[in-house]
Amino acid sequence: MKRQTTIDLSKAVYAYLQWMTSQQYSPHTIALYQLILKHWIMFANDSSMSLGDLFTYETLKAFEAESVLKSVHLAPIRGLAQYLYKNHQLDAPVTKPREALPDIYEAYLTHYENIQDVTQGMIRTYRNVLLGLHRYLNDDDLSRLTIGQVDAFLNHYNTGYSQTSQRTHRGCLRGFLQYLYYQRSILQRDLSAFLTGPPCYAQPKPPRFLRPQEVDRLFSSLSWEQPRDIRCNAMIYLAYTLGLRPKEISLMSLDDISFTKKEIRIPNRKNTVPMRLPLPEEALKTIVFYVTRVRPQVNHRTFFVNLTAPYRPTSHYTVSCDISACLHKAGIAESAYCLRHTYAQNLLETGASIFQIKEMLGHDRIQTTQRYIYVHTQMMRRGLFDETI
């Protein structure tokens, strides 16, 4: 049995490395994976485990602790497990065990992820807060939950955290309480209104938008030499000329763009109302250049994909980071969202109403749109100083 396990695993590793080669992984990555997987085979040979028992989180941690390698990355073993799983040779890929939450907590996390544009890191933060609350309540009936219990939990849980993290934790519980009251009718009253933190005396900051000279500086600084630069430039034009969110850009499909009609369909909006928008000439030229010169010929219909193997759809986090990097390169210390704010400001200055701006931005509440047009610089200058712009 011991010999058979080793032979089967050796064949699996060989097939996996061949697959990596076919997917155009770099030779350096393949060599690193081969080295670690070689030690993994020796570990498996000594353990006499079946393939199923080998690919568990606990076994991977044991290998990491016992390995003679100076630095052990578990990604090669996780990748091998994923490869075997997809080829029906393993019942499940390797996953890190996490403490299960009652169904109501899991349902809220799913609800929160569906209605908000959040990272997996934020989901993990919310999960940790809800796990702490569940432990603190010790399986008490949520229908009898009081604001005193929530406050007492937060006072205990927030110890040692920064003010920013404490606000995040309160926001998590505030959303959870609203969910229990409005969506599930578990609470008799909405307790979220009573969940407040210490007063914050800072003045609200209007969204940051680019001034004309900053816009000129950004677009004059764009590079068109490297494939990643060209892909990022297409993202920038879509964000600036159409006000698209990073997530909307990442979810774009080739099927959403009509090159003959010069328009784009945006199906995944926060207000759940799909929209067709005309593609400005400069944006159209940029995305055509990206598609014809840069985009890999892959089966994915997602418009933006990774430029190196494995070819996967580009995440909204990558979109945001790439745009922010271009802004910083141009000497503009802002995030990707400032292009969306600039789009809203441009609409306002062309005479669009707040309702028109709301629809163009895909907002579900007009209060959100009001934040985007908090300051109208040219209007203020005309009104206060009688300037001719």
Can you describe this structure?
By secondary structure, the protein is mainly α. It has 3 domains: 2-86; 103-192, DNA polymerase, domain 1 (Orthogonal Bundle); 212-383, Intergrase catalytic core (hpI Integrase, Chain A, Orthogonal Bundle), CATH 1.10.443. The protein is built from 18 helices and 3 strands. Helix 7 packs across helix 8 and helix 11 (227-242) packs across helix 14 (316-329). The radius of gyration is 26 Å and the shape is flat.
Core attributes:
389 residues, mainly alpha, DNA polymerase, domain 1, hpI Integrase, Chain A, 3 domains, three-stranded antiparallel beta sheet, 18 helices, 3 strands, flat, disordered N terminus
Task: Write a concise synopsis of the structure shown.
The protein has 18 helices and 3 strands. With 389 residues, it is mostly helical.
